[in-house]
Amino acid sequence: MIKVENLHKSFGKNKVLNGIDLTFEKGKITTIIGQSGSGKSVFLKHLVGLFKPDMGRVYVDNQDITDIEEEKMKKIREKFSYLFQGGALFDSLNILENVAFPVVWGTKKNPEDYDIKEKVKEVLARVGLKNIEYKKPSELSGGMKKRVALARAIIKEPEYILYDEPTTGLDPVMSATIDDIILKLNRDLNILTIVVSHDMQSVYKISDTICMLYGGKIVFEGTESQIKKCKDKHVNNFINRMSINS
Amino acid sequence: MKMEKINRYFHNIGNFAIFARKAYKSVFPWPKFKNIFKDLYEMSIKSFPIVALTSSFMGLIMTYQLIYELRKYGLEVNVGGIVGVAVTRELGPVFAALILAGRLSSAIAAEIGSMKISEQIDALKLMSVDPLNYLVAPRLIAAILMVPLLTVFADAIAIFSGFLVSYNILDMSLLRYIDKIQFHVVTMDILSGLIKSLFFSQVIVMVGAFFGYTTEGGAEGVGKSTTNAVVYASVLILLVDYFLTALFFG
User: Fold this and answer.
1) Are A87 and A145 spatial neighbours (Cβ–Cβ below 8 Å)?
2) Edge to edge, what strands does the sheet with A2-11 contain?
3) HEC letters along A20-54
4) Is there a contact between A8 and A55 (Cβ–Cβ < 8 Å)?
5) Using CA of residue A142, residue A147, residue A148, residue A149, what is the dihedral sign?
6) How do residues B89-114 score in pLDDT, each as one tens digit?
7) Which of B115, B120, B127 is facing A102, going by the closest CB pair?
8) How far apart are CA B125 and CA B127, in angstroms?
9) How many other β-carbons are positioned within 10 Å of the β-carbon of residue B81?
10) Are A104 and A150 a contacting pair, CB within 8 Å?
11) Could you give the ipTM of this predicted complex?
């Protein structure tokens, strides 16, 4: 379980998060929606200790990680996988080395070992990719990079997966494929999943709970049917793709 | 506004000191040899041609200038000794370090800076990998081995270039040229140059890594970091050189 209490974060004079309280449970998919720059990615990074809050607490499995030492945080991060917005693949490594990285780093294993290579091929196949093991990230399209990053995120079978805009920049078919992967992983591994997204079609398909972030606060928390009935102007504008001037 | 600038300047110096401390601590556990070898290759084979080229021109030009001056006093026969002392004590290590600052500090700042803005450093942290151990420690180790070695090459090439000019203008034999070097150059000259190069090696890597690691604001930020890395590394090399020279010969 991940629990966030009264989370505040500012960058200079810009208040990004202004008192957020949320609880995420195992086996559930929670989606966080909100306009660009509303602080969704910033919020996500607080959950893995990449940002420290100005005020408030973050708990992972009832352990307070807010002021935790880096060495202890490393242990907690081993439970997480994180899909970055741009993929964050390592440019200097090929795809095989990139995907195998979480399982070979700190061990005597090598990406070229038979079992590692087979595992990499298997997770790449799950995201619809094959025969790209020896390519460099620079040789792939944006969508392919994102799928490789997803393969890297799932190779270690984590307890928690955080997705930062997993379908942005993908074609509709690939977006649907990624949605299916998110759902399947959540079902098969019974993990806690948090997705930050703009893609409402995808949000409706995968979410158990939808939260909307606006003005640094959670202005909505509920299910698909509840959000569709919500009277809040900002929520309505967002889900119905209405202009900010309307 | 001025006060704010001064504050920021001291703040950056403090941040650099903290970064350097963390970077040295990250050397243990020892980084993967594969990563160290990759950096050794980058710093040796790829840097050697430019260091060799600039050192040879430095030797050629300096010897021309020296012969021109020494001739006024009839002392041109000592040119080998003077070239030897100047190169081993000062010009070899400093010239090599400045060239390497231009090549390596900029490359390190650009690479780490690009990784920072594309969230690759965050990705490393999330995989429980210490980014400093992965990115900076191998370079610190490779530089401490390679920069002194490149300095020895730079010294040798500059001195040999000096001989070519001496032979061309003064018709000086190699034996006579070497004899003057042996007469004037003492162990301390060579040793002080090598010790300086050890310090310079750390400046080159640390400054590049610091500016890369603190990059903000997209491609423009990477450009700024790269420029800052070269400028600050060069200035710091000269500053360190001044203090070490005062220590050795003051």
Assistant:
1) yes
2) A14-24, A2-11, A55-60, A63-64
3) EEEEECCCCEEEEECCCCCCHHHHHHHHCCCCCCC
4) yes
5) positive
6) 999 999 999 999 999 999 999 999 99
7) B127
8) 5
9) 18
10) no
11) 0.89
The tokens describing A64, both together, are 């307070």
Question: Is residue A139 within a helix (H) or strand (E), and if so which, with residue range?
Answer: none
Sequence-distant (≥ 6) Cβ neighbours of residue A205 within 8 angstroms: A176, A179, A183
Query: Cis omega before residue B148 (within 30°)?
Result: no
Determine contact: B119 vs chain A, CB below 8 A: yes
Contact between B120 and A88 using a beta-carbon 8 Å cutoff = yes
Which DSSP string corresponds to B175-238?
Answer: HHHHHHHHHH--HHHHHHHHHHHHHHHHHHHHHHHHHHHT--SHHHHHHHHHHHHHHHHHHHHH
CB contact under 8 A, A84 and B115: no
Return all residues near A198 (Cβ < 8 A) that are at least 6 apart. A33, A36, A165, A168
Q: List C-alpha distances in Å: A124 to A15, A137, A185, B227.
A: 40, 14, 14, 39
Considering only CB atoms, A90 lies closest to which of B120, B125, B126, namely: B120
The residue type at B86: A
B157 φ, ψ (degrees, to nearest 5): -70, -40
pLDDT in tens, B29-79: 898 888 899 999 988 889 999 999 999 999 999 999 999 999 999 999 999
CB B156 within 8 A of CB B48: no
* N- to C-terminal Cα separation, chain A: 39
Nearest residue in B to A105, CA atom: B129
**Contacts with B144 (C-beta within 8 Å, 6 or more apart), sequence order:** B198, B201, B202
Q: Do A77 and B127 touch (CB under 8 A)?
A: yes
Interface-testing mutation among A77, A79, A109, A165, with chain B (most B C-beta atoms within 10 A) = A77
Confirm or reject contact between B118 and chain A (CB < 8 A): yes
- Location of structure tokens 């070229």: A112
